[in-house]
């Protein structure tokens, strides 16, 4: 059926894949359409297997989840990738988000939350909270610039859009940004949509990364 979310599983542990398969296939609106034991196998199979969302382990042999995510995002019809990791502050997860992953979850995430994340990502939302991304970025602050780095696409932003981008990067929600600037939430969503369009980014998590990488927001110590 057209409304069924097609999920592809990538993990080097067969038992983990079996557990995810049982969970996903128990839902009426989603099904597992393929599996792979490492990133290389995943990239090969996904090129010939139509899927919507990939559950991607980051630490795997042959080709890790970071590089696999990067290669998948270069495909004409790239699937959304949810990165799964054992550790909260994980350099692999940070790198995978930069590579284009739309989500970041711990492997011990409750089943209901994982299923919700799959639905959210499929609908176009990011499932890692900006505050979690913020903690990741601040943890790896040494790799971030000390001074502001201008990008050509940032020059296209209006003054208000730039202000909204900064607050998104600081981890504020749409509601908080609306209160800060005395705007409606609908207006904030419109601003964020325009920022995404002008920067060519996929979601607000990518905007958080952009804010830190360009120095618009500085890590706190």
Give a structural overview.
This protein is an alpha/beta fold and 221 residues long. The protein has 2 domains: 5-139, 3-Layer(aba) Sandwich (Rossmann fold), CATH 3.40.50.2300; 159-214, Orthogonal Bundle (Arc Repressor Mutant, subunit A), CATH 1.10.10.10. Helices cover 46% and strands 13% of the residues. The protein contains 10 helices and 5 strands. The protein has helices at 14-25, 39-46, 65-72, 91-98, 111-122, 130-139, 159-169, 174-181, 185-199, 204-213; strands spanning 5-10, 30-36, 53-57, 80-85, 103-106. Strands 2-1-3-4-5 form a 5-stranded parallel β-sheet, sandwiched between helices. Helix 3 (65-72) runs parallel beside helix 4 (91-98) and helix 7 (159-169) crosses helix 10. The N and C termini lie far apart (50 Å).
Order of strands across the main sheet: 2-1-3-4-5
Terminal-residue CA separation? 50 Å
Task: Give me the number of helical elements.
Answer: 10
Spell out the CATH superfamily of the largest domain.
Answer: Response regulator
Poorly predicted residue ranges:
none
Number of domains: 2
> Roughly what is the average pLDDT, rounded to an integer?
86
CATH architecture of the largest domain: 3-Layer(aba) Sandwich
Q: What can be said about the biggest beta sheet?
A: 5 strands, parallel
**Annotation, overall tally of beta strands:** 5
Radius of gyration of CA atoms, rounded to a whole number: 18 Å
Report the order of strands and helices: EHEHEHEHEHHHHHH
Modified residues (4-aspartylphosphate): 57
Pfam family, one: Response_reg
InterPro entries: CheY-like_superfamily, NreC/VraR/RcsB-like_REC, Sig_transdc_resp-reg_C-effctor, Sig_transdc_resp-reg_receiver, Tscrpt_reg_LuxR_C, WalR-like
Domain Response regulatory: 6-122
């Amino acid at each position: 059926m057209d409304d069924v979310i097609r999920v592809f599983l990538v993990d080097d542990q067969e038992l983990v894949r079996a557990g995810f398969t049982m969970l996903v296939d128990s839902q009426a609106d989603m099904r597992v359409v393929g599996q792979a034991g490492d990133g290389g196998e995943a990239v090969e199979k996904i090129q010939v297997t139509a899927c919507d969302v990939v559950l991607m382990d980051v630490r795997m042999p042959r080709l890790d989840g970071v590089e696999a995510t990067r290669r998948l995002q270069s495909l004409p019809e790239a699937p959304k990738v949810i990165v799964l990791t054992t550790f909260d502050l994980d350099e692999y997860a940070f790198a995978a988000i930069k590579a284009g992953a739309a989500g970041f979850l711990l492997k011990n995430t409750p089943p209901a939350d994982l299923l919700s994340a799959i639905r959210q990502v499929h609908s176009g939302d990011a499932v890692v909270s900006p505050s979690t991304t913020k903690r990741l970025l601040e943890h790896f602050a040494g790799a971030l610039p000390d001074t502001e780095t201008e990008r050509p696409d940032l020059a296209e932003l209006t003054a208000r859009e730039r202000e909204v981008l900064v607050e998104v990067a600081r981890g504020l929600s749409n509601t908080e940004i609306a209160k800060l600037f005395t705007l409606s939430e609908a207006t904030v969503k419109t601003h964020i949509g325009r920022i995404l369009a002008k920067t060519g980014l996929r979601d607000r998590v990518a905007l958080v990364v952009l804010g830190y990488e360009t120095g618009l927001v500085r890590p706190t110590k």
